[in-house]
Predict the structure.
Amino acid sequence: ESKTGELVREKFALVLNKVDLVEPKEKLLDLATDLGGMADNCVRHVEGHAPTYEFTGDDDCVLRDEDGKEEVMTEEERVLQAMFPPVFYTSARYDEEGVMDVLKHLLSRATPTRVDWPVPPDRSSHMTAVQQAEEVIREKLFRSLHREVPHRIRQQNRIFRPYKRENGKFVVRIDQDLVVQTKSHQRLVNGRGGMTLMRIKEAASRDLEKVFRCEVMLNLNVKLNKKGREVKPLEAEKRSGSVRRDVKDY
């Protein structure tokens, strides 16, 4: 605790992932020590000073300057010590417990909000349905294309229409143009025989069906726009509230 009685909480934690790939494991300790020292200096720099420290055993803490002179740790320095980040060793592939330790730590540091939550409890995102669809498609573009190509693509939404089939099942139809400014980029996005675009469409459709929890009819078209004309927003994007209500119960 600080002098004012407040509980000092560290602002960050050190998470070393993919530890299963590190051999020998002793390297992890050296790495944690080095990174912990960097965190130490960062915390102390914010507080206006950056001495080194080490433990001599038991509960006694001392500071040691460059000349090797020892000095008992002050109350302020003990507060800084309480702010040092904890270290977690994780491997999402083999060590689920390590991941759970990180989650437990984050939950222990979470504090209740004093204002209304920005996202209602029955919603997983503050984005509109159209924005969520656009984000999913954009992710697949970056995963399937390389270098500057995905950065040069403008997404132009044409249709976002949720409706119900005669059998009672919900469906969302999404039509989107992928606008490029060069023929070379147009060929790269389409791929040989349209295979790249098909791969993007299939991957995006799978994720969109998970997001909206219903069938998704996704149509992607690559269009060439050499003049760089302005991409107008989809009408549904202007009426984002109505779009959210349409897909809220999917």
